[in-house]
């Protein structure tokens, strides 16, 4: 059993509510940044080193995936580094049990296809929050000259060498943008990705690829241009702060009427959340690292639209819903990314939340006193929303299936306990 598994084998959180959080906490590196960076190491025979990655289940799964391809991966939680050397690739097939465990597993297909000339995988898994097709990736690979064979949900890709192409994405998928950008780095000629994702993690990946010798321009806008090169070299990268973890700490402070200072933050990445918190009556101090978040009730109802960056992040949508159960009036959340993101609402209702869902919208009436209940984490973000609700609830709440949360958060219960929360793992 690995150290990570030992830390996360307890999968039920018991939360005693009604405690005001205060103190200081540090956000870790971004999961959604570290995973594509690990995949990028497949593009070179030289060693790549990541600094400040989170040591979570999805990172371990990606390390296991790379190892299964013949890549050397060294995880060092003490030094907070991951060293990856892909000097010899012995397989181009993603093992099914790994592919179905997390969506980012599909990010190795672009690097394998452009460097080795082939890749295969079943449809990637992950949180069950709606349809998450890989059509963006597959159509892009085909436009660059790859042969794409699909049988049910098994994909086989091959190409002698990819060619630069003009690619238009039907929607700005961040994993699709990343996968095509990775593939285009070693393609012959120039590729242009239109309607590209502008998420901060996409920008971080482009910056790191440029450190490896890639020629990428326009990351952070909806048009990215990649001039293919013959080879890339090793590099060292700093993983950007996790805006979703930092945002979770901000929401935890707000829902408990607390006062928490959050270190290792990027204000620009957090601005969509911080704007809504301020609109609801939460006090935000600081426009750069660190950021201090405090709240005095009553809070005001707000309207939130979860949409691609720079809009409000869908990965913080369940958590702000938990907070809005404590705001005065009717709040509205419009989920415009994942159609099944609201599955967590029934769990919040078990705690007394007054929430009605109609299509892509949730209507939250508040303030509603929350009470203890036995609830279940359905995915990473819904599990965190339930933890936040439990912090504000009367009594002792049991949140089961916490293994989902540990896919995205290294030690959230311990971090919240350090701020005063009463949480025990069973």
Count helical runs: 14
Backbone structural class:
alpha/beta
Main β sheet profile:
5 strands, mixed
Instruction: Give the distance, in angstroms, between the N- and C-terminal Cα atoms.
Output: 18 Å
Low-confidence stretches: 126-131
Radius of gyration: 21 Å
Helix content: 25-40%
Number of strands: 24
Mean pLDDT across all residues, rounded?
93
| Oligomeric assembly | single chain
**Beta-strand level of the residues, as a percent range?**
25-35%
Q: What would you call the shape?
A: elongated
Label this structure with key terms:
4-stranded mixed beta sheet; elongated; single chain; 31% helix; 14 helices; 24 strands; alpha/beta; 426 residues; 5-stranded mixed beta sheet
Describe this structure in words.
- It is a single chain.
- About 1% of the residues have low confidence.
- Helices cover 31% and strands 25% of the residues.
- Strands 17, 18, 19, 20 and 21 form a five-stranded mixed beta sheet that branches.
- β11 and β12 form a beta hairpin.
- With 426 residues, it is of the alpha/beta class.
